[in-house]
Every structure is written in C-alpha cells, then in structure tokens.
Write a structure and sequence with these properties.
- The protein has 512 residues and is mainly β.
- The chain contains four helices and 32 strands.
- The strands form eight sheets. The protein has a four-stranded antiparallel beta sheet with strand order 1-28-27-26. A four-stranded antiparallel beta sheet has the order 2-3-4-5, with no helix packed on it.
- Helix 2 packs antiparallel against helix 4.
- The longest helix has 28 residues, at 3-30.
- It is globular.
C-alpha cells in the first residue's frame, strides 16, 4: 500500500472515530441526570448564594448565607472538604451576590452584603481561606442599598464590578477594581420608568465583535435591559423589554445568564412570578396577571440589543415553578446544557439549548429543598458538577451533584437500609422513643412507600454491635432526596444523634 492510500485510510479511520464520538456525545447530552455525590454541614444560618473558583489547580466552593461565608475544597469526585468560615461585616447579610475573579496577581471574592448595604472584598489565599481587604459602603451617589447581584467585567486596561440592588433606592453602579480589591466608583444610574434595574437579581456579559454588553433583569420592573459598557467602565442603556400578558414570561425577572453558540449570542432569563409572594408585601406593582412559568431566550442583535426569541413554558413534565437560578453546565459548538434551580418546585431542572436558540427539557431531580440563589456549576477534569444549597434555616447543608448520563432505573425500587448502634448509656426509654420516631417517618414523608424494621437476632457474632435495622423503600431518586432533606428526617437525626454510637447506611436497587 502506497503512502497516499495509507494516509487516506488513516483519514477514514479518524473520521469514523470522530463520528462515533459525536454519536456518543449526542446520546449522553440528550439524557443527562443529577446524582448526589456529597453533602456537608454549613456553619452559617443558611445558604443563599454559592460560587466556586479554581486557584493553583485546586477547586474551592464558597457558600454564603445570613451572617457567614463557608469555604470548602472540592475534589474530582465531587467531595467537599470544609476549610474555613468567615463572619460577614456586622454579622449581617445574607451574602447574596458573590463572584470570584483574578485581578493582576491576586484572586478575590466579592460579596454583596444585602442588609449591610455594603460590598465586601476578600483576598482568596492559597488555602482557599479568605482575608478581607476592603469594604465599600453605600453613599448618596451609589446604589448599594440591599445589594443583591455582582458582575465582573474585564476590559483591556482594567476590571470593573457592577452592582445591582433592590427596594428603596434601586439602580445600577459600576466600580473599578483596584489591585488590593478596593473599589473606586465610576458611574451609577438611578432606576426609572424606562430601564429595568429595580431588583437586579441577575446580570450577564457578552462580548460581541470587540464590544462589551451587560444585561440585567429587573425583579420589580418585570423586564430586562441592555447596556453598552465602555473601556473606562462607563455604560449607557441600549434597549429595554418589559413583560406582557401574552407571550413574555418576565414577571419577577430573576436569574439571567448567557450562551454563545457558533456566531449567535443568547441571553437566558428566568423569573419567580409575583404570584408566589403575598401582594401586600414589598411587590411594588400589584396589578400583575399570572400567565404561567417559563424560561425566556433572547437573541443579541448587531447593536447588542435584546430581541425576544423563544419561551420554554412550564408544564406537568417540567419543574420550572419559581426559578431562582440558571447555571450553564457545558457548551459546545452546537448546544449548551443548563440547570434551573427552583424555589417553589424544590427541584433542579436540566435543559438543552440548541444553536437555533430553542430550549428543550431533559431530566430533573426533586431535591427536597428550596433553592433561593444557591446553585453553581463547576467542572473538574471534564466532570460536570452542580453545588447547591438552600435558604432554609433548618437544613444547614451544602450538596454536590454529578451531571452524567441517566442510569436506567425502570421497573426498579430503591431500598434504603439504616443500621444503628446505640451508646452503652442509652436508656431503654430513649431507644424506644427513637424506634417510634423512625417508624413515624412513614406517615410524615409520603415518598416513603414502605418501611420495615427489626432488632438484631443474629447469633453469628458478626453484627459488630449494631442492634437495629430500618429498611425504607422509595420508587425513585426523587423520593430518596426528599426524605434525606425533609424536616421530619432532620428532626429525627437531631433527636437520636446524641444516643447513637455508630450508623451504617446502604442503598440498593431491586426489581419491583
């Protein structure tokens, strides 16, 4: 065989391998699912915001809530390792907007201290721990009151932090980031009836043909706005799109993110409809009409303006009720995979966006807890993870999930087996109460389809001191997640924990 034929054969083999790989990728992205990898306790009151960062080849997670920020390491298996916790200024918060970035030779975490009306700058140390370097307080010229969302914009000769707030004195502000993390005010724009900057809970930046554009969502304004950002950090409004009563889903505009596929730029916007709030509270526009839940897609035109393009409407097969966070998990040339965290459905919904800008639902996982803003995607060695937390004050957990091809569980049930060893000083009364509390879970958590238990009767001498076994049955992964983070289960753990010497938990799937 001559060299030309060898080269042609080699090309055909490579083409075949590439085609097979493409088929495999298409199959995997068409049917992805979330699988929990770990959960760890937090020291803060709750988890409102989550962000992550890679520094020196190590991966860190920052979970912010009321009064505190927790720092964890994250490894390639999705396992969290607690590193440190840090008190917010004046013990306030919650830590709403959180964004990490590199400025010159240092890494910083910027935190919007919501009720402290302040932006906190922290240096990220090599260990992942934090060191506060600056505080930027609200003034008459800025709009940091009830600060919620932060967005870093890197330009050629400088980096800027955009801040959005809520309620009494809303607007959009820009600060230049100094080498030590301090912020210098550049420009602020007060909210008015034209722009949608009252309650900026989501922001995103697109770079289009050398120009930089910032997109904001107005929770109170029920709309989205586009801004051109210039090299010196100044900005001007380009266009604004308001909610309507027919084909737009922007009442309570909440998360805002974006994706670029080939040469087309998209902005994806979610909302937590005002129907989920009491009309007598802080909702300013009380004449809204509920027209359903949906995720909106906008195209970016040549001038950086937003153009309504597509809406994925919620139905019985999706979990999009009360969207509070949208995270981009992965992007290739043809499609992007996104995750939507919901406060009212208490779930994470996976979506796919194709290059035509059309969203389609994939699978979802019912988490068993409400997500407020605490959802973050992070990749390690081509593994995609989601880190989630809840604003629930009784949960105190941070959870990691691996996003991977769905495992076929058809016609199977899940057994959750708990073996308990009680402390030697546990009284018979305490043990009896623990037994009754465990059995009561069946009536408190509907997702438990069966529960049986018993006391060890083995005479082989291999029970290692475990005396009680409880076997719970679930129909699917959703049931197990809801049980794990259900208040009744958490209360049980808190109650019997002091008398437990050891616990062994095993799960397995079996045919129906």
């Amino acid at each position: 065989m001559n060299n030309k034929k060898i080269m042609n054969t080699f090309k055909y083999v490579l083409a075949a391998i590439f085609a097979i790989a493409q088929i495999g990728n298409a199959q995997s992205t068409d049917d992805l699912m979330l699988y929990r990898k770990d959960f760890k306790a937090i020291s803060g009151e709750n988890t409102v915001s989550v962000t992550s960062y890679e520094k020196g080849g190590k991966h860190y997670v920052f979970a912010g809530g009321v009064g505190n920020i927790d720092v964890y390491g994250l490894n390639e298996d999705g396992i969290l390792s607690p590193i440190s916790d840090h008190e917010l200024h004046m013990k306030k918060g919650p830590a709403r907007g959180m964004v990490a970035t590199r400025i010159k030779n240092n890494d910083f975490l910027f935190v919007a201290n919501k009720h402290g009306n302040i932006i906190e700058s922290f240096k990220i140390l090599d260990s992942g721990s934090l060191e506060r370097t600056a505080l930027t307080e609200d003034t008459e010229d800025t709009y940091l009151g009830t600060a919620i969302t932060l967005q870093v914009v890197h330009m050629k000769n400088g980096s800027y932090l955009f801040v959005g707030g809520l309620e009494e004195n809303p607007g959009l502000s820009c600060f230049q980031i100094q080498e030590n993390g301090a912020l210098t005010h550049v420009q602020s724009m007060k909210d008015d009836e034209t722009v949608h900057t009252d309650g900026i809970i989501g922001m995103y930046v697109h770079k289009v043909k050398g120009k930089t554009y910032l997109y904001t969502g107005g929770f109170q304004d029920n709309g989205v706005s586009s801004f051109r950002v210039y090299e010196d950090g100044t900005f001007k409004n380009i266009n604004n799109i308001s909610d309507n009563k027919t084909d737009r889903y922007l009442t309570g505009t909440y998360p805002v993110t974006g994706v670029t596929l080939e040469d087309q730029h998209y902005v994806i916007v979610g909302h937590r409809h005002h129907k989920y709030y009491k009309r007598g509270n802080f909702i300013k526009r009380k004449d809204f009409v509920y027209h359903g839940d949906g995720v909106s897609v906008f195209k970016v035109d040549k001038k950086g303006a937003l153009v309504p393009h597509f809406v994925l409407k919620d139905d019985e097969s999706t979990k999009l009720s009360g969207q509070t966070r949208i995270e981009v998990i992965s992007v290739n040339t043809d499609e992007a995979v996104l995750a939507v965290g919901t406060r009212d459905d208490e779930a994470i919904q996976l979506l796919k966006l194709n290059k035509e800008g059309v969203l389609s639902p994939m699978n979802y996982l019912e988490t068993g807890y409400s997500i407020y803003y605490g959802l973050r995607s992070h990749s390690i060695d081509e593994k995609d993870f989601l880190i989630a937390g809840s604003f629930r004050f009784d949960l105190h957990k941070l959870v990691t999930y691996n996003v991977m091809p769905k495992i076929n569980r058809d016609h199977k049930k899940l057994r959750h087996v708990v073996h308990l060893k009680y402390k030697s000083d546990a009284t018979n009364t305490q043990i009896k109460e623990a037994e009754q509390a465990f059995v009561a879970l069946k009536d408190q958590i509907p997702q438990i389809t069966a529960l049986e238990w018993g006391i060890n009767d083995s005479e082989e001498g291999a029970s290692k001191g475990f005396t009680h076994t409880f076997t719970l049955t679930f129909n699917n992964e959703h049931g197990r997640e809801i049980y794990l983070f259900h208040k009744a289960h958490l209360d049980l753990v808190a109650k019997v924990g002091p008398i437990i010497a050891d616990v062994l938990v095993m799960d397995y799937w079996t045919e129906e």
